[in-house]
């Protein structure tokens, strides 16, 4: 496996595409939504911090945007993406 192939595999999005969503941890799934990390902090590390702060995905649902801003690496755009995804999920569950 070449270096380029290893990078594709190790990135959460690469694992999602190759093995499927069920193979990804909650942190890996959330890191795909986050996209890029910050200098010195990967998107997966930011995702783990979010999950530590909110407990699990259920704990994220309905949280105001400013509750995400205290987490290093999350600003308006990334926090809005996360909130939007969880709002979509909430609406799907509501429609079931």
UniProtKB/TrEMBL annotation:
<protein>
    <recommendedName>
        <fullName>UPF0758 domain-containing protein</fullName>
    </recommendedName>
</protein>
<dbReference type="InterPro" id="IPR046778">
    <property type="entry name" value="UPF0758_N"/>
</dbReference>
<dbReference type="InterPro" id="IPR010994">
    <property type="entry name" value="RuvA_2-like"/>
</dbReference>
<dbReference type="Pfam" id="PF20582">
    <property type="entry name" value="UPF0758_N"/>
</dbReference>
<feature type="domain" description="UPF0758">
    <location>
        <begin position="11"/>
        <end position="79"/>
    </location>
</feature>
<dbReference type="InterPro" id="IPR001405">
    <property type="entry name" value="UPF0758"/>
</dbReference>
